[in-house]
Predict the structure.
Amino acid sequence: MAIVKLFTTQSVGPADRIIRTLPAIAVTGAVYAGWLTGWKAVGLAILSALLLITAILGSCSIYFMLGHSTCPGNGRPRNQPQDGQRKTRPPQ
């Protein structure tokens, strides 16, 4: 259950997504331009792919483990209403 929560909890906000996307684009351009070759290109391509994946998905496993969140929803699982919007059954 914790693994599902790890991948469904949104912890990366809009500004953080932009900050993660820019280096990924820069490394991709440098590899295609031929400025990066060999193992440096492979290592930076893997790192930039991880940054891009976390930017697209909006969840970062390191943020989740540290309990940190940069999104305005404060790290609640996707498609889950905020506390004030949750419908509860009246006590019987």
The first helix runs from residue 2 to 8.
